[in-house]
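We emphasize that the prediction below concerns an isolated chain of 87 residues; any contacts that depend on oligomerization or on bound cofactors are therefore not represented. The input was used exactly as deposited, without trimming of termini.
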Amino acid sequence: MKRLTVAACLLLLPPMLATHAFGQATGALGGTVEDQTGALIPGAEVMAVNQDTGVEALVITNDTGAYNFLAMQPGDYTTANLFSDGA
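Result of the prediction step, given as a token string:
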């Protein structure tokens, strides 16, 4: 019985290590868009650009002017408000 248990563990170990070795971490980036008076702006397009890779992502602010970029790769990002319906 011990041989079967050891063999089973040895068979399961490589896939578990591969999953751990190739797993990728992600994060989120969020905030709000305001005008000069501090009023929150719904419907604004916000772009985030990864400074290392140049990859761009685009989201639109919700009814309270908030935005969230989900599942972002780790890195340095810049954000910019591109457009707003109400401005």
